[in-house]
Amino acid sequence: MRNSTSFRGKRLERRASEQRRGGTLNLVSLMDIFTILVFFLLVNSAAVEVLPTPQAMTLPNSSAEERGREVPVVMVTREQVLLQHAGRTLSVARLDELNEGDKGALPALRVALQREVELLPIENDTERRTRGELNLMADKGTPFATLKRVMQTATEADFANISLTVLQSQGGGQGGS
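The structure assignment produced for this chain is given below.
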């Protein structure tokens, strides 16, 4: 006895049985997409370093291409001097108190720097130690004499490299007129 079902009938029966079972989802493609998304987010989140900019200061602009490293930051706002290190921000002194004193180093800042940042050995020199690098973030209108006193204090506190934090201009490293 021959099967009386045609090819069309068999196809319709097969489609009906597949619809009763429900569709399948190809998870391999979905996992590939999520893996690529995770790698993209990891690479981009690690490449961006954002320093906090208090509302009370305006940073100067720069055209430098090189990025800064994660180091302690001394912030000189319009009202006070702050030290940011290891995720904490400490108020060191009020700016009006600093301007009243002598024109040398800032003792309160030196004590805070020595207390918060540990000394590290210098490569190929077991005798000397340094506290490494320090970023100085100051308001655009901060007098140079105040910046000089902060840099002098950081030098006396054994910091080897002091960098001034600026905003990067959109033009890149090209010279202007």
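Interim note for the steering committee: Residues 7-47 form one domain. The mean pLDDT is 78.
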